Structure formats: structure tokens, C-alpha cells
Amino acid sequence: MAERDDDVGQSRDSAEGPQPAAAPPGSLRRKVEERSAVPLVFLHNAPSWVLPVTVAVLFLAGLALQGPVGAILLTVLAVFFAWLAYLTWPRFSRTEKAARCVLVSVVLALALLQTGLFAVI
């Protein structure tokens, strides 16, 4: 698909409409965004298959391994999902925010079940 001349130089974000305001300097959000820059660049530069395969392996291993090992793997996955959700939170609609909260909650609930502290009937 050919790009029009008047679109040259515009970022993809500007074409999507108004963007959320930048976090004020010194805020927690700004600090988390700055600390997250290197890991995000690493994920961006990794081959496209690495992230989905890693997530799938962590999830399946977390479900397969009983006890604390499975719970730790699922907790790591939930923390990763929560981190990504936090970084992109201002851009989400209410529905998208709810979906991210449900995802993190379900993975954490599975982690709790893997500890063996709660018996499933």
C-alpha cells in the first residue's frame, strides 16, 4: 500500500488521534517508564517468536509443575503482564483495562492454586 506524500514524517501515534499527556517529571509513572526502556528495547529487538514462546513455556510449565515452582513461574508471568499493562494503561479503554485486570487476576489465582494451599474439590 503506497503512502501519501502528506503522511510522510507523521508518526503512527499522531494518526491515531490525541495521545495521553506525558507523566510529570519525578512521578512514579515516569520513573517506571524510564527504567523499563532497556527491557522494552530488548523485547522489541528480539525475534518475533521469542516473547510468545517464552510466555507459553512459562504458562504451561507453571501449570504442569505442582507446588512452589509452578506458583513462582505463574507469578513471574502475572508480574510481566501487570508491568506491560501499567506501562500502557493510559491508552486503554475501560474494556481493555478490565481485560488486563482479569488476565492478571486469573494467572495469580492459578499461581495460588499451584501452591497447594487451597484444595480444589
TrEMBL record:
TM annotation in the entry: 37-63, 69-89, 101-120
Coiled-coil segments: none
Comp. bias (Low complexity): 16-26
Keywords per UniProt: Membrane, Transmembrane, Transmembrane helix
The keyword Nucleotide-binding appears for this protein: no
UniProt protein name: Uncharacterized protein
Pfam families registered for this protein in UniProt: DUF6703 (PF20444)
UniProt keyword Zinc-finger present: no
